[in-house]
Structures are given as structure tokens and as C-alpha cells.
Write a structure and sequence with these properties.
heterotetramer, A alpha+beta, B alpha+beta, C mainly beta, D alpha/beta, A: alpha+beta, Ubiquitin-like (UB roll), elongated, C: mainly beta, Folate-binding fold, four-stranded antiparallel beta sheet, 1 helix, binds flavin-adenine dinucleotide, binds nicotinamide-adenine-dinucleotide, binds flavin mononucleotide, binds zinc ion
Chain lengths: 1004, 211, 97, 431
Amino acid sequence: MTQSFRLPEGGLIDRDRRLGFRFDGRDYMGYAGDTLAAALLANGVHLVGRSFKYHRTRGILSAGAEEPNALIQLGEGARSEPNLRATQIELIDGLEARSQNRWPSLSFDIGAFNNALSRVLPSGFYYKTFMWPASFWMKYEYVIRHAAGLGEAPRGRDPDHYDKTFAHCDVLVVGGGPAGLAAALAAGRAGARVILAEQDSDLGGSLLGTNGTTIDGQPAAQWIAAARAELAAMDQVTVLTRTLAYGYFDHNFIAMVERVTDHLGEKPGHLPRQRLWKLRAKQVVLATGAIERPLVFADNDRPGIMLADACRTYVNRYAVRSGNKAVVFTNNDGGYTAALDMAAAGVNVRAVVDLRANPEGPATERAEAQGLHIMPGSAVVGTSGEKRVKQVRVGRVDPGSGRALAVSETLDCDILAMSGGWSPALHLFSQSRGKVVFDEALGAFVPGDPAQGAHSAGACNGAFGLADCLAQGHAAGRDAAKDAGCKPGRDGARAPEAENHGFLPAQWAWEVPSDKPPGRGGKAFVDFQNDVTANDLRLALREGYHSIEHVKRYTTTGMGTDQGKTSNVNAIGIVAKTMGREIPEVGVTTFRPPYTPVTFGIFAGRDVDGLLDPVRKTPIHSWHEQAGAAFEDVGQWKRPWYFPKPGETMHQAVNREVKAARDSLGIMDATTLGKIDIQGKDTAEFLNRVYTNAWSKLAVGRCRYGLMLNEAGMVIDDGVTARLGENHYLMTTTTGNAAPVLAQLEEFLQTEWPDMEVFVTSVTEQFATVTIAGPNAKPLLRELAADLDLSTEALPHMAIAPGRVAGIDARIARISFTGEMSYEINVPASCGLALWHALMTAGAKYDITPYGTEAMHVLRAEKGFIIVGQETDGSVTPIDLGMDWIVSKKKDFIGKRALSRPDMLKPDRKQLVGLLSENPEEVLPEGAQLVERVLPKPPMPMIGHVSSSYHSPNLGRSIALAMIKGGQARMGQTVLAPLADGTTVTCKVVSPVFLDPEGTRLND
Amino acid sequence: MIESYLRQSPLAHLALAAHGPGSGKPAGVHMAERPFPGLVNLRGPGDNANFHGAFKAAAGYDLPVEAGATAGSANTTALWLGPGEWLILDARGGPKSGPRIAESLRAALAGISAAVTDISESRACIRISGAKARAVLQKGCPLDFHPRHFAQGQCAQSVLARAAILLHMTPDETAADGPAFDVYVARSFAEYTWRWLEDAAREFGVARGER
Amino acid sequence: MLVIPCPHCGPRGEIEFSYGGQAHIARPKDPEKVSDAEWADYVFLRDNTKGVFLERWCHVHGCRRWFNVARNTVTYEILAAYDAGAKPPKLDYETQV
Amino acid sequence: MTCPEKEGWGTAFEMMPRYSIFSLIRNALSYHEGWPRAWRSPEPKSSYDAIIVGGGGHGLATAYYLAKNHGMTNIAVVERGWIGGGNTGRNTTIVRSNYLWDESAALYEHALKLWEGLSQDLNFNVMFSQRGVLNLAHNQHDLRELSRRINANRLNGVDSEFLSPQEIKALVPIMDLRANGRYPVLGASIQRRGGTARHDAVAWGYARAADALGVDIIQQCPVTGFQVEDGQVRAVETAKGTIQARKVGIVTAGHSSVMAGMAGFRLPVQSLPLQALVSEPIKPVLDTVIMSGAVHAYVSQSDKGELVIGAGVDSYIGYGQRGSLPVTEQTLGAICELFPMFRRMRMLRQWGGIVDVCPDASPILSKTPVGGMYINCGWGTGGFKATPGSGWAFAHTVAKDEPHPLNAAFSLDRFRTGYLIDEHGAAAVAH
Ligand SMILES: Cc1cc2nc3c(=O)[nH]c(=O)nc-3n(C[C@H](O)[C@H](O)[C@H](O)COP(=O)(O)OP(=O)(O)OC[C@H]3O[C@@H](n4cnc5c(N)ncnc54)[C@H](O)[C@@H]3O)c2cc1C
Ligand SMILES: NC(=O)c1ccc[n+]([C@@H]2O[C@H](COP(=O)([O-])OP(=O)(O)OC[C@H]3O[C@@H](n4cnc5c(N)ncnc54)[C@H](O)[C@@H]3O)[C@@H](O)[C@H]2O)c1
Ligand SMILES: Cc1cc2nc3c(=O)[nH]c(=O)nc-3n(C[C@H](O)[C@H](O)[C@H](O)COP(=O)(O)O)c2cc1C
Ligand SMILES: [Zn+2]
């Protein structure tokens, strides 16, 4: 199709680069520099979408970020993306675009039936119905859900990647229009580190949409080019185009998103698609411009009804006529500029309908001089045309009643350009907690005092004349640099000069006078995307939803993907008028990030897939991998869970590992256990305070088990601590708690007991730790540590000694978490793999068997040893665990006081016991709940739960540990475990120590 | 018995052979593991002259006391980690260097309430250098790497993506084609950190091996 | 992300720190002497001030020191940072919230 | 359109006509000009039998059940801003009752039963959608905890099932169960009766129903102090003057400590920022609620089509009603990992609430040291689902001056005695 609405010359497009694209299955052409919206308009396409609720036909309203209507589904499959604004999609060759929220097609949409029903579907109708019969709601909901939503989610894993970065600067300038450019120049010349962020593909802002503007005597385009060049030459200045500052957070922290490759036809693989900038700015200059407002009148939503300034931008920037015959409808002087530029581009401007009884202002005068047909004191009271506006009806406004009188004229047209005034884009300012104030003359909210280091300049600050914008931008840039600590430069002294034209005078009417009573005739839309009409707002007020926040939520005004950029102020105005209040009394709804929607992917950045979260590996990890270990996640660590041999099930592997450790020799990588080096003369006393038991008498070379509580008396960690020297200890913690325990020790030392001479240092990663367990542990060690005296006299149970194992400097501790004779060998981490190899080689004769965490769990459960986090859950005291023996009565320790609170002494607290199921083959599920009696139906009072449960190959039956109310008094009794599958397991309460209660296996 | 070739540096298993950035263009970033540095954690009374005196007597230089400052001799460098905490670093390292430094410091500080802990084995050291080194670190680390804020010889502890790091901008390398940073990270995070940095550097072109 | 002024390292990003709740809560000297209610207060009860609040932070990914901060819990502005154990600076606690 | 002032907005008391499809059609004929106010906006009387401070869901429900179940109709709800503007209006609307501890399960299950008939009871469609809630397990520890909770739920009469990865895949085809090995999905619990509800409608529905029973709902009226004599509450001081009250129920969520401070007692509660966000609306892709405590990500799709996503709390006290960026990064990182196709979705809006968190992550519904004063707080990150049950039990507490058995365990006293209901410790997530 030809670009029949493309002007033969002009615009900022690159006519040498023709680009083909497809919309709803049809092929079109455009130029580089076009947005999709511009290219569609160039091809005469106005109907591009359907509204959210009534599925009304919708066209292109704006030329920028504020677009509520022209929402497009871009791309296919996994790269498909819904709800993109056609006004911001940069055209690339081969672009695939679809309209959305219609079925089967855009021009014939079944959903449009809603429009016929719209009388019974006012705001909030769903709160009032679908309640009968009660059981039908889920069916109604199904229909509602499928009617709602706009575009479609992409299908499949996103093939693109994203990036993020921190950044710092002295001055961030948001917006690359005249105000922002002037600010960046001034700040840059003052020597500040400047970042200029502009969401558009190019600098210039609204200047790009003008014609004949001059700055400092040069055409605007030249001035922009010079500014761009000067900024590029300053190495302290970074200009980021295609970069949206989307959120302004605390302490001048600004989040921005840069579109790196979206606009490229070929996407280089090494570049991310988009990048999140997490920027800390000392000062921020907001130069974000302003957004034109539509006018609210009957049937103001048809394709072809556009913002006046957008029509102007399409002409000047994209060399596109939006139509052939235009009517302009305005309430301010600014609307005439659009009329003039359109006329100059060959559009037949049928009339300028002006709400003002006495149109005046410089642009108005020029239009008069040009002989445009002006209809003062008039209003558009209705339109017609299904897929494109065809006619507008104009009525005269009766100054007395404020009502429009009967239609005075009906005008044919294919474009209705409207201007209802301007709203400064103060979204970021408000996000920064700055208060906004209402400016009566401008009929708009403007920034009040900033709450952070922010300066507003230009149109977003209520300055609409170009000279004012430049002056404010210049001053803001200079002041921001100064506030950021930079010395003012000499050559930055002067602001660029230009002429000043605003859009005033204007006459505010939040809803255009109509010739019909409210609610009759066509729908007067306020929020185009969500189909909210002026009448919906009145309905909400009538029903008692008086707060503007209630109005918003009841009608959904401003809640669409555009967040009400074009509609919010009109809505507030209508609410104020209806309630007879002043606009400031009504107030604004809260501005929230993002300014325009931002991709989820940027928040993940490159922290996806393998880089999602660190995978911590021990120095022996590669061996485990080669051995085919199955791994278990413990915190960020990967720990071998079990080592299946070919063809083995998990159950078989674990049984084999468990048996090996009891019968001959098992070997385990225990490197992940937390290790804390503690030095200083007060260490023993310190341990007294952090552990429940006493530490003063521990001899050098000996180890002791300890329990740690929180101040609520609950068990939080356990482990063995060794005394290495007079004032030197090595504490071990559970794998998961290594970091929190270290942090807590450090906290107590710094804040509670600063006078203690104790130093704690993490050495978890300094050592590789290998445990060998079983009757052949000692023979193996004897072989590899010939110099070491392993006799029980020299190295008894719970002792530690330095030595060399396989030629490696080591610390050898004889401690046991399995109940077997076992040694924990600590060597420098870099030697861990070598040690492992040496042990495996020398241990072959004992059929040395690597075992994983699962076998370790079985081994310790056979002995009734607890695992913190499995038997405990933050509500368990040492007494509950039957570990009174480790709780000192004499000294104070963290958590001690809590143990004497009334509820800690109750006999029905849950206590640790062993459980044997009646059927020895039956392994209770972990997490099974226990009852005394099974009732026919719930609720059934529960007395506890199974915390650990395994098949014990050594006992040849199942065993379990459980926490049961008053458990210690229930020894020998029967309890029942009703399972989810309806069966019940009968079990006997027994001691939690199933194997070798005397501990003879620990001895030679 | 244990031969030093059996020692595994934290990144040894990745078999990081030197290679260029590919596609013929110059690498924006160079990355290399620096294996076996000697690292000793020193804690002591930062406000005690005896302590400082004893250190100086042993090391031949004063402990730095400003945030992020470093000081050193030909043999070792002291990095300020916090009030009363330093890292004594022998970048050339070697398997015994950590224990050796620790031993001599312990001897020198006998009788002073201080703690000396060899942590050489517990950290990996990744050197990242080149014109884009700053940009790569900036992706994951909230510090400001502008030369005005992070100068040669300076050190800082911070985070890089989801790992805790100690950064040292090495003073010895001349910034012919960009600055050089040593990134110290817990051994078990080494592979993650390496892969993360390599991925971050991809858009600039990465060469493995030092310049 | 807040900027927390570490008294030792200078201003750093929030993600380098961990939060420690209200400052100036001392552990009872002799826990056995306090009542259950007083113990519960010590363990569980903290001010939850709307306005200027004295709180603890630890520079975990920096110098690892605990210190105190006076922060407005509504605006999140930080008015002061000072060493653990030191007395809070004189501040206008009535600042508007 | 007539001028509302002349109509005397907020003064007249009129009969509440029932909402139904018929009333909708009837009103359509008169251009919807005949709808009455959903609730009045009266000036406060000089005295009430009871004043409920806080017009969130819990406060409004309390007032409704006080009137409905206990015949107390000379009561008022006093709200600082607009009703439902606190956490009620800013939560991710997940409703479930599959809590671990007996006390919690009983209270939340009572709430769930009330949810099941709430639209009809209130004659206001709260769009309670029983689409099922999944809690994911990512490691062996999670699985063990899940199993413990499922078993406890079933014995407490709370529906709860285990889903294998295959069953999850069938229910939520767009989820990546491998999640690249870091957070593999090893199983899930599902409560099929759980789901979501339309948050605003809950506040409005209770307000309308309470108003119809004579309750005065007074908005834009911050409470600034209490008059307490001889340990007994006498009056409430507000921006609209002092109002006498025989009883006062405080239901102010994030501001509970501030209220308690005015009344002269303290609470073991911290007010933390909790954030949520929504995507742009899309056609249905997710038919259940997905929760992962391990990665702090919660997602469902609203009836309007947007993905509603909840995050974790910021660690520090904050009354700012906004969350910080690092938390958003963490949450959306997790969501993108579980749902790789969502990487291309876009965030439309993010916001925050102020959640009142107890040390044991369980609420307080209790008498206070002040006679005639009662407190309902500590719901933290998960109280929306409890709204009907909370109001129901709290109304009992206020009316009878003693807790109902359902909330007896949730006393202020538990911190002294040690009888905590530790949903934190039990690793149960609380959304
Ligand atoms: C982001 C987020 C997500 C959540 N997600 C879930 C979820 O998925 N599921 C779930 O069950 N829960 C969730 N919650 C928690 C849930 O929202 C709350 O627990 C619940 O809504 C609390 O209701 P409420 O009525 O007690 O409090 P609110 O709704 O906060 O009401 C308290 C009211 O007290 C008023 N008030 C305060 N001070 C005064 C004063 N001085 N005078 C008068 N009035 C005053 C406030 O203005 C407010 O309206 C979430 C919370 C947040 C913030
Ligand atoms: N008819 C009138 O009277 C009228 C009305 C409005 C504007 N104007 C003219 O418009 C100009 C205003 O200049 P200005 O510089 O203040 O505004 P501008 O509109 O020229 O520039 C603002 C720039 O900020 C960018 N921006 C906005 N939000 C952003 C964000 N969050 N992140 C990144 N970029 C963002 C926009 O894309 C735009 O380029 C003047 O020339 C003025 O005369 C005139
Ligand atoms: C479940 C839920 C869904 C929401 N959906 C939308 C939405 O579709 N569009 C929108 O703009 N805001 C949506 N919001 C957010 C509200 O606009 C608003 O941000 C939130 O209620 C907090 O209020 P505040 O931002 O005014 O402080 C939603 C909020 C909730 C709780
Ligand atoms: Zn610090």
C-alpha cells in the first residue's frame, strides 16, 4: 500500500531507508525514523484497537508515552509482547504487529456486543450482580476473565537477555527537550558528572514536533545538533537516549531502563535487549515536559479523534497528515498552532471550534490572519463514524446556562484534533515525595517544593514558553551542579534565547457543555482505555464513593496501562465540579512507578539461569560430580545427597552407604559445616554466655558439643567447639546457620559485651573437612598419619590434634555424628581434593564408601541425634529435646531466662521421642501428624508430628523421631498416624536412641 | 608428600586457559585467577600505640587507618577492612605465605590483645582489568568506581551481585589500557563470581589471562 | 535504596547493610532477677516510632561494624549516624511526620 | 444532574435496596440516576456504645458483626482517610486457611467459611474466587515442612493436598519446574478452596452492610488521642472533635503502635514496608495462585487480567507506604525464573503498604491494659484472608469483653507466658 498520507517532503524521517512492516496481516511501508503509529497514519490506518470493556473501536490519540488507545501486540511466540504503545514503537524492517482485544478480527469483534449492553454495565456493575446462584460465581468469573485482559502473554521462554548496572552521577537530567538540554549543558559546563536520560530515540523533545522554531537565532534542529555535539564532547557527560527514568526512589535513587536493541533490525548477540540503570544522583533535574489533555464530550473516542499537538507532531516530525479534512476543537490558544501546521501541510482545516467565547492569543491571531474558520463559544457535542470519525456536530454554548444549545452545524471530517490544555508531567517529582499544587491559571497541577535534591524545569514545571523553558533548564542545571558541589563554570553563564509562546489564555471546562442531559446521548469518555465516562464518575459519587481514591478504584479511571496520563486531571475536574468542591480539595491520586510500564526481565537482569543465585561448591565437588552423586540444596551449598551406583535406587544407595559406615568405612565431605575461629582471653567466658553448657573447664585439645538458643529460649544452632590453644577455639555450626551464627556472635561482642577480648573470624572456607567413620576409620588414619598417636589415651573421643594426613597439614578431631568411631580431618581447602583422593585410594581395601547427607541423617537418627531445623522449628527448647543435661543451672546464657516462663514449664509441651511403627517395613512419612484416637472425621486433636523417619538398615526396620506432647511420659504407649491416603499407622513411643545407647562403638 | 601440583586453586577446575576476546576486536576486559595469595586477617586495638608499633616493627610500615586505605612494603600490603581490622596480603603468595605471615605477626604481637588468622585458603582472587573493568564491576557493585571516588591502591568491601567481595585496585599495574582490580571472594563463591563477571564483560569482549 | 552513612566507611548503599531494630536496648544485667513480663519486654517489645527513630544497622558487607542511626521512618531521611554505645546526638525529634 | 450538596449528601438515611441483575436493569432504564449511596457519610454523634478505630477490612467487618451478631448498632467506624485505603486496598488478595498451628488453622478456616458465603451475606459481590492456592517446595526441607502442614491441615479439617511436579505442570503449564536447578519445583501443597477476592469490594461490601444496620462510617477523621480515666477508656479524640465511647476497638494495622502509644501501652509489633506490583493486563494465563516462600514471590492473575505479584518486606521500620528497588529485583527475579515467559511482561504499577508484624508472625486479638479497649493487629503480611474471621471474633471480644475461643490464644499476654504461635519458626509463609 502506498503511504498516501505522507507529505512529499520534510520531517525528520530518513526517506532513503524504506522499511516494510505488517499490521494485522497486511503489508505496509514506512521510513526509518517512524514510529509504528506514524507509519500506520502515513498509510491511512486509524483503527488500531479495541477498548478494554466495551470493545469500542479505537485509533491513535497521541504521539508519545501517554497513549491510552493504540496498544499493539508485537512479534510472535516467545518474543511476542502485548500492550505496546504504537506511538513509541520504533519502526524496523519486517516488524510484525497485531491489534488486540478483539475476536475474530479488529473490524468485526464479537466483544463489541458489550457496547450494546453498556447500559447495564456501568462502573462497578459486577459488584451488584453475579451473586445468584452462589455456586455459579466461578462460571461467571470464567467469562469475565476471558473478556478482560488486553493483549496476550508471550509464549515460551524469552530468548533475549537483560542487563542491569549501578551508576552514580552529580546531576541527572531527565528529559532531552529544550529545558533538559539547557540543563545538561549548564551542569556539564560547570564540570558536573552528568547523565541525561531521554526516553525517545532522539534528543529535542517537543521541539522535534515543531516547525520554524528558532533558538539563539538558529533553527531548533541546528541548536539541538550543536547541543548534542557539545554534550558528546564532555567526557563527564553521558547521554542516554531510549532511556526511560521510570521511578524516583528515596535518597535520590532513580531507576531507569535503557532499550539497547529493541530498535535494531539485527540484534547483536552480545548486547542485552534492555538494561536497568540503578542510579544514585546527587541532584536531579526534571525536565519531563507536559502532556496534552483531551476534551470530554459525547463520542470523543472514535478513531480519527486525536490530540491536537499529536497531529502537529505527525506533520512536522514524521511528515504525515493524519487526515484530509480536519476539525480542531480547543479551549486554549495552543490548539491553533496545530491547526496552522496542519493547514500548512495541506490538510483541509474545516473549522476551529473554540470553547472560548472570545478567542484570543498569538496563535489565534495568526489563524485568523490565515483565514481559518473559527467558531467561537462553540462545542463539539457529538460525533459519528464507526471505524473513523466522519462527522462532528457543533453546538453553541449558552453563556448563561453553560449548556450547549442545539446543534448549529454538522461538519464532515476525518480528523478531529482536540486540545484541552496541558498537564505537566510531574510523575517523577511526585514519586520523589514532592507535593504538587494546583495552578488555577494553568488549570493544572504543578510541582511544589521538592522533597529531595530535585529541580523541575520547563513544561513539567508549568513553564510553557520556550524562552522560559530554556531559562529554567539553564538555571536548574547550573543550580544542581552547584548543589552537587561543583564550581560554577564561566561559559555557562547565559541561557539560550528564544521566543515565548504559551497556550494561554484558556477556558477550563473539564467536561464540554452538552446539548443533552448527562448520561444521555453518546458516551463522554474520560479514560479511553478503561472506558470510563463522565457519567461513570458521577455514578460513583452518587453511590457514596466520594474520595478521589474511591472514584478511581470504583470506576478504574486512570488504572490502565497509561495510568491516566491523559485522563486523570479531567477526572479530578469533573469530580470537583460534581461535588461542588475546589480541585485542590479533591486532590490527586498517588503517582507510583513506573512512569510507563517496564519489562520484568530487567529486574532479573543477568541473574538468571546459572547465575540466578550462587551455587556454593566445596573443593571436592568435582569428585562428587564425577562419582555421579545426587545433590541436595542446603542453603546455597550443593551437598552430595547420595552416591548411586549404576542401577541403584536412592533407597538402595542410602542403605549401602549406611551399612558401610557401620560395618567398615564411610567417608563424607563435611566441608560445608560452619567454622568460626575464636581468639582472645575471654573466649571461655564468651562461650559460657552463648552456649547453654559450661566451657570454663574445657582442656586444650578437647572438644565439646554445645547448643545455642535465642533469647526466647528456643534452639537455633548446635555444634562442636574445640579448644586449640590457651585462648584459641574453633567453633563449628550447622551448614545453614554458619553466617547467621557468626553475625550474632559479632553482634553480641560489639554491642552487648564490647569489653570482652574476643575475636571471631569465619574460617568455613579455609578448610576442607572430610569425615571418615566406621570400625576401619582408625586403621585407615593410622596408615596415612603415621606420626600421629591415635591411641585413645592420646586422642580420645572428643579430642583434637594437629598432624599430617597423607602429607598434608591437618587438624584431626575425633568426634562423631554417626555413633561410630570417626574422625573429622580438616586440611587447607586447596588440599581437600588431594586428601579425598588419598583417603579413597588407601581406603579401597576397606571398601571405603562415600556417603551423602541422607545416609548421614539415617546414621544420626539411629543414634537419636537431632538436626536443628528438622527436629526443631523455632519453638523447641533444649528441655523439649530431652537435653536438660546440657543446660547449665549455674551460669547465665543467652535464652536462659526464657526457659522459666510459665509456658515453658508445662508438662504438655512437645518433646522428642522415638517412634517404632507396628509394621517394621512401614516407614512413616516425615511430617505425619500423630493422634491418640482416630475420629471418623476431622477435626482430630493432634499430639505431635514425625520430624525424621527412615528405614534403618542396621536395625533392619523403620525408625522415626517425633515431637509429641508430653512425650517423655508416654514411653511405651501407642500413638496413631492417620495419613493423607486414608490409612493409619500404629506406632509405639520409644527412646529416641535406637542403636548403641551405651556408645560402645565409639571406643576401640 | 603432597606435591604443590596437587593443590587446587579455587578456580583450577574451570581450566581457565588463556584465550582472546574472539571476533578479532580488542578485549575491553581481561580476567585471570591469581592463585594462592597469602592472606592474613589481623584484628587488634586500633587505638593502641603499642599495637601499631609492634606491627610496624614486624612489617616495616604503618597500618593504614583511613577507610579504604592500604599501605605496604615490598613483601606485604595491609588493607584497611574496618576499625581494628586489616587484611595483610602477599599477592605473590605461594602455599606457605599465609601461615608464614601469620606466624611472624603472632610473634610480633605477643602479649597484645590481637588476633591473627590465616585465611589464605578461604578466598579466591580474580583480577579484572582493562578499559571496561570499571563498567563491568559497576554492573554488580553499588560502589562508585569513578576515579575521583575509587583510586589506585584503594580497597573496599562490598557486594558484587550476590557475593560479598573485597576489592583492591592494584597500584602496581600502570593503567596503560585501563585500571586493574583484584576481586577477593569466598572460595565457594569463586566459580559463581567468575562466571558472573565473564558474563557481564561479554558485551565488551573478554580475554582470559592477564595482560 | 537508601544511602546509609557508615561512621567508618562513609555513605554506602542499603544493600551492604543489615538492620538491627531499635537502638539502646540493653540486655538485663541479671536476667534471673527480672519478671516474666520484663523479660518479655526485653525480648519482644521494641518501639515502633513513626517519626525520628534511633535504630541499629550493621555494615555487614563492609567494615562489619554495628552502629546507630537516627532516621525518620516516614520520609526515610537520615539525620545522624553514630557509634554503637555512644549517646544519641541532640536532634529535633518533633520533625514533622 | 442535581447538585449533591442540595441533596444533602451524607445526611439522609435511606433503605438499602438489594443489588441484583434486576436492580441493574431497572436502574439502567433511569440512566443509573436512582442508585442510592452504598453508605452514608454522617457527622459523628457525640457518643457511641463502641467506636472502631480504623476503616480497613478488619475494622469494618468488626463493626458489621458487632451490629449483626451482637445487636450493637449505636457504633461508629472512624477512619483517618478513606475506607479500605490501608493494607486492605493494597494487598495481593490471597485467601487460604492452610496454616500449620491449630490455633491459626481454626481462625483462618473460620474466616474461609465466612468467605464462602460472603457475597450473599453482604449482598455485595466480593468476587471471592476459589481458584486454588499452591505453595511450592524447592528443596528437601521445604518438602518435609509441606508434608507436615498438609497432614496437620487435613486433621484440622482444612482441605490440603500434595501435588507432584507432574500434577503442578498440568495445572500451571507455564511454570518452569526445573527453574534451572536452583529453585527446582519438587512439589506443592494445594488448597483448592483458597483463592483470591476483590480487595476493595471487601471494604465496600462490609461498609454498605454495616451502614444498613445503622453503623456510622466516618471518614477523613484521624483519631488523635484517647481519654482514659481510672484505667477505663472514656472517649476518642478525633479531627472532628471528641467522641464519647464505652468501648473502643483499635484496628489500625500499620498504625497500631501509634494508637497504643496514645492509649498508654506498647505492642510487640514492627511496622514494615511491604510492596506489591501488577503487570499490564493480559488474557488469562494463570488460573491459580502461586506462592513460593523460599524465593518470596507470590503471583496470581486478577479478573481484570493483570498479574498481581507480592514481594517480601523491607527489613526496616517504614511508614512510607513504599518499598525499595532491591526487593522488587529479588521478587521479579524469582518470578522470571519460575515463569520464564513473563520476562517480557511489563510492570504497570508498584506500591507499598505498612504491615504490622509480630515476633511470632501471628496476630493479636486481645483485651488491652486499658479497660474497654481492645486491639486487633499484628496481621502483618497475611491478614486480608482473615478479614471476615477476624472481624467476627473481634466483635465477640469487644461485645463480651472476653475473647472468643477462636482468638483466645492470640492474646497480648502470650509474649510473657511464652505461648507463641510461631508461624515464622514453622517456616510457614504468611501471605
Ligand atoms: C503488599 C501487601 C500484600 C499483602 N498480601 C496479602 C495477601 O495476599 N493475603 C493476605 O491475607 N494478606 C495480605 N496482606 C496483608 C493484609 O493486607 C492486611 O493484613 C490486612 O488487609 C489488614 O487489614 P486491616 O483492616 O487490619 O488494616 P488496614 O486495611 O490497613 O486498615 C487500617 C486502617 O486504619 C486506619 N488508621 C490508621 N491510623 C488511624 C487513625 N489515627 N485514626 C483512624 N484511622 C486510622 C488506616 O487509615 C487504615 O484504613 C498484604 C499486605 C500488603 C501491604
Ligand atoms: N502549546 C504550548 O504552549 C506548549 C505546550 C506544551 C509544550 N510546549 C513547548 O514544549 C517545550 C517544553 O520543553 P521541555 O523541555 O520542558 O519539555 P519537552 O516536552 O520538550 O521535553 C521533555 C522530554 O522529556 C522526555 N521525558 C519525559 N519523561 C521522561 C522520563 N520519565 N524519562 C526519560 N525521558 C522523559 C520526553 O520524551 C521529552 O523528550 C517548549 O518548547 C514549550 O514551548 C508548548
Ligand atoms: C489486587 C490489586 C490489583 C491492582 N490492579 C491495578 C491495576 O490494574 N491498575 C492500577 O493502576 N493499579 C492497580 N492496583 C494498584 C492501585 O492502583 C494502588 O496502587 C494500590 O491500591 C495502592 O494505593 P496507592 O498507590 O494509591 O497508594 C491494584 C492493587 C491491588 C491490590
Ligand atoms: Zn562500614
